[in-house]
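To fix ideas, we give here one paired sequence and structure record:
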Amino acid sequence: MSDLGSSFLELDRLSDEDRLLRDEVHRFAVDVLRPAAAELDSMAPQDRAAPGSPFFSAMIQLKRLGFHELFLPLEPGTEDPDGRIAESKALTQSIVLEELGWGSLGLATAFACDMVPFMSVASFGSPELKKEIFEPWLNDTEGKYHGCWAITEPTHGSDYVSLWDTGDGEAPKAQLIAVKEEGGWRLNGQKSAWVSSAPVATHVALHAQAGAEGNLRRGLFAVLALDTPGVTKGPVTQLLGMHDEPLGELFFNDVWLPDGNVLVPPGPLYMLFGDQLLCMTSALISQVAVGVARAAFEEALDYARHRVQGGKVIAEHKNVRLTLYSMFEKVECARAYARKALEHVVRETAMLGGTGAGAKAFASPRHTRAAQILTKRIAFEVANDAVQIWGAGGLSDVAMVEKLFRDTRCLWVEDGTLEMLALNAATDIVRHYEHETYDPAEVMAR
């Protein structure tokens, strides 16, 4: 397991505060995340979510450092005519997520998923809901609150991404149905075995079909405590990689959802919100993917500097040098584009504290999807090259590159397959390539 430190040349001009933050997060990644991730990787699935699991101790320590506060929405009415606030905020968030991703893809993903329900309440919830759910989470230092985002279902995965390409009459039925009753909704159904953090979460941000006659396009978005009567959790899912992030099913049997917990009700806003939420999560996970790619590159670089073959360290062999250069090029390009995409999202959307006044702001689906696709593809390609440089040693389950290879392969499916994300971006390109801005009213009318 290599650690080349957090001191490397960046094209972005970092302030002293930025450098101190990067050093702090990197030390945490080295001292806490990597040991916890290694332990979780070798544990039985159910043990990862059991009391005493290193998952909980890592998340508690992460929460105490207060990094989640860096992702809080800007105050309403914040003016940023030259974009400097958005640029600074995006750079700060990128630094944190890249270093967390460098330490552990699974735990960094858990950090990001945790924010979805609570930040959604911060942006769209009533004062009462903010006091009940958001404020306790914000001030939590004991790991009493953890969020997850439940969107996929057993027969609906990446097709959620393709809803923009699906007519209302062609959209399939969901497997979690919300039926309206006086004062709220009655939930019945389930979410898939791929819900990140579901086995360890206390609250969920969920998507549900609104009414028995609805479909995936006609839904609602809500936040719910998972200790609500009728909610049960399935076993921890075992995947190829990402063992440091417990995943599992959620079941809803006659669960009561109060109207006050519905953040986005059924109607034209629902599809617009879902699209912008995907813009946000795409921008965030792309920073994490850059961190994982950098971790794989640094493992290969450090190994190549020390491994002797043919009478010299393999870093002196031309083919290895060319591979290392290609890996470096990919990581740098991924970081540059991912940061620009995140800056765009921060500037344009209310969810991440955008300065575009929410209603008149709209993040670009094609650019944010491209950030997610590019960085995830690069992360796996770099991890694959790292295994090749390591040779047989890279196939050993004690090698960091072996875990990185498994983890990055999961990225090609997580949050939508790369193919479906690309098709979604392509739809936006075909429809809006010449548009410099989006009209939310026109988008909602589709």
